[in-house]
Design a protein that fits this description.
The protein is mostly helical and about 325 residues long. It has helices spanning about 25-50, 55-60, 65-95, 100-115, 120-125, 145-150, 165, 170-195, 200-205, 210-240, 255-265, 270-300, and strands spanning about 135-140, 160. The chain has a single domain (about 55-300), classed as MetI-like (MetI-like fold). It is about 65% helix and about 5% strand. The longest helix is centred in the first third of the chain and has 33 residues, at about 65-95. It is found in: Cell membrane; Membrane.
């Protein structure tokens, strides 16, 4: 029977216990101390500096015109503009990727133009477009007056005429201007998302008898959403902040316009800026939470964390 003791003349191959010493990071503690001091200074400034005038800030935020401006001029315009922008952007992206050179060229020209124009200038121009249509914006058969003249008839073939001064002013002009500008950016985002999907996906769908349009809707776009959603969330947040540019149209039923009016009345400029900042911080925080859940939903199946290391054989507990 063999002895359980180590035979004479042999050494134990197992290493001894390692006395590991953690790596020191003095720079981290210095950075933490500096940050703590800066935070304390900021809190002291916010609580003690009378220029903030918190009572007036909250009073201004609770005014009915301000709340209405936040709901209509900020949130509603953001939602409607993003609907126009996302829908138009996807359409432009599909056109840009088309084999038809005319569709591809039109998409490129649209994207080039609206990406080149600053949004403030675009909204300002939108508010003055009524001068181009003194008799109104008509919907009907194009060049109907010429056709009627050639046929020796009278009248017109228009079924709806809108007052241009009403179409290109107010919230409608803001939504149109911001939506068209956003469509140009969303076109590039959607195009990048569509191109990220392997071509074999669309080819397989078409091999099963799916039309190209249906394959795009049912196969390609759902997979492209993983790439499209994060920048779209950023564009939505940027759109929310860009609603403050509606002053260029001008839109009086907007958050920043209403707060500026209150500040001008009471000669309180800085507290008004603080009130607007708090509103935008609140809204963007909610949007960031929604973006997080959307990214998690469309990112299913694409792990974002490193896989756990496999446990060695025999490492399980007793």
């Amino acid at each position: 029977m063999m002895s359980e003791e180590t035979p004479a003349g042999t050494t134990d191959a197992r290493p001894g216990a390692i006395d590991a010493v953690p790596v020191r990071h003095p720079g981290r503690w210095v950075a933490i101390a500096v940050i703590a001091v800066l935070v304390a200074m900021l809190v002291h400034l916010l609580l003690t500096n009378k220029a903030f005038d918190w009572k007036f800030v909250f009073q201004a935020m609770n005014q009915t015109p301000v709340i209405s401006g936040f709901l209509k001029g900020t949130l509603l315009v953001t939602v409607l503009s993003m609907i126009v922008g996302v829908g138009g952007g996807v359409l432009l992206a599909v056109m840009r990727l088309s084999d038809n050179p005319i569709l591809s060229g039109v998409s490129w020209a649209f994207t080039w133009f609206f990406r080149s124009i600053p949004r403030y200038l675009l909204l300002f121009t939108m508010g003055t477009l009524g001068v181009l249509f003194p008799s109104g914006v008509s919907l009907g058969i194009p060049f109907d007056w010429k056709i009627i003249e050639w046929l020796g008839m009278s009248g017109d073939w228009r079924f709806l005429t809108l007052d241009a001064n009403q179409v290109f002013t107010g919230l409608v002009a803001g939504v149109i201007g911001l939506g068209l500008s956003e469509a140009a950016y969303m076109a590039e985002i959607a195009r990048a998302g569509i191109m990220s999907v392997d071509k074999g996906q669309a080819e397989a769908a078409e091999a099963l008898g799916m039309p190209k349009g249906k394959a795009m809707r049912r196969v390609v776009l759902p997979q492209a959403m993983r790439v499209i959603v994060p920048p779209t969330g950023n564009e939505t947040i940027a759109m929310l902040k860009d609603t403050s540019l509606l002053l260029a149209v001008p839109v009086i039923g907007e958050l920043f316009y209403q707060l500026q009016s209150i500040g001008s009345t009471y000669y309180k400029t800085f507290p008004i800026a603080v009130a607007a900042t708090l509103y935008y911080l609140l809204a963007t925080s909610v949007l960031m939470v929604g973006q997080y859940f959307l990214e998690r939903h469309f990112g299913k199946g694409f792990g974002t964390t490193a896989p756990r290391a496999a446990r060695p054989a025999g490492a399980g507990g007793a």
